[in-house]
Amino acid sequence: MSSLLIGVAGGTASGKTTLARILKESFQDNVTILKHDYYYHDRSHFKVADHKINFDHPDSFETELLVKHLEELKNGRSIKRPLYSYKTNERLKQTKLVKPAPIVIVEGILIFHYQSLKDLLDLKIYVDTDADIRLLRRISRDIKERDRTFESVKAQYLRTVKPMHQKFVEPTKYQADIIIPHGGLNEIANDLIIKKIKDHLDQ
Ligand SMILES: Nc1ncnc2c1ncn2[C@@H]1O[C@H](COP(=O)(O)OP(=O)(O)O)[C@@H](O)[C@H]1O
Ligand SMILES: O=c1ccn([C@@H]2O[C@H](COP(=O)(O)O)[C@@H](O)[C@H]2O)c(=O)[nH]1
């Protein structure tokens, strides 16, 4: 059986990681998760504050490498994925071994922007959460987990995150097979996706 490739897109802090985590908890070793964020270009040479760098433009990622890795996984071969630090904007020297699995979830704000990536996906899910909720979540998460200050989150949001969302992320919503409202813990939507995955595993 070839792997089922599921893409989970949506704005920052919409609940993509939360959905991927719920699917991983339900299906354990049957699920492998790859984040587009692992494939950010290295920006550690920038000595300026984070909010000066545009991390929300499609050119910020090495998407060709992600596409190559997804093809490898789909063909049953392991890959060594990059490791990325949000704290230092750095692509680390080490890599992490990722084994193929029946379900591969790829997650990221812009994954439906690239035709080559979209063509590989069997199911495209867009997690749709209101911008004010996402901003509140992002402020808490970035301060707690990504070593940011309120001022830096605010400046980055206004300078790049919001305009790039409107220009590049939001339009990809209509590329999705399923749009999940109130993303993160939408139980009905999550149950439907779990059912779809079970059907694939039972084939
Ligand atoms: N339904 C929800 N209710 C409250 N907080 C949530 C919900 N879904 C996600 N979060 C929180 O919001 C933050 C961003 O969620 P996450 O799933 O990491 O989003 P994304 O991967 O889209 O950036 C995390 O701190 C997460 O715990
Ligand atoms: O070094 C970095 C890399 C990325 N970001 C921000 O992360 C989000 C995407 O991650 P989500 O988990 O989907 O929120 C994106 O909006 C970038 O702005 C960063 O701040 N620093």
From TrEMBL:
Any one annotated GO CC term: cytoplasm
Zinc among the record's keywords?
Answer: no
Keywords per UniProt: ATP-binding, Cytoplasm, Kinase, Nucleotide-binding, Transferase
Which EC numbers characterise this protein's activity in its record?
Answer: 2.7.1.48
- Pathway(s) served: Pyrimidine metabolism; UMP biosynthesis via salvage pathway; UMP from uridine: step 1/1; Pyrimidine metabolism; CTP biosynthesis via salvage pathway; CTP from cytidine: step 1/3
Q: What are this entry's molecular-function GO terms?
A: ATP binding; cytidine kinase activity; uridine kinase activity
Quote the subcellular location field of this record. Answer: Cytoplasm
Judging by the UniProt lineage, the source's domain of life is Bacteria
Which GO biological process categories is it annotated with? CTP salvage; UMP salvage
Domain Phosphoribulokinase/uridine kinase stretches: 5-188
In terms of one coarse class, where is the protein primarily found?
Answer: cytoplasm
One family from Pfam that matches here is: PRK
Q: Name the chemical reaction catalysed here.
A: cytidine + ATP = CMP + ADP + H(+); uridine + ATP = UMP + ADP + H(+)
Supply the InterPro entries for this chain.
P-loop_NTPase (IPR027417), PRK/URK (IPR006083), Uridine_kinase-like (IPR000764)
Q: Cross-referenced SUPFAM superfamilies, in alphabetical order? A: P-loop containing nucleoside triphosphate hydrolases
The family annotation for this protein states: Belongs to the uridine kinase family.
- PANTHER family, alphabetized: URIDINE KINASE (PTHR10285)
What name does UniProt use for this protein? Uridine kinase
Its taxonomic placement starts with: Bacteria, Bacillati, Bacillota, Clostridia, Halanaerobiales
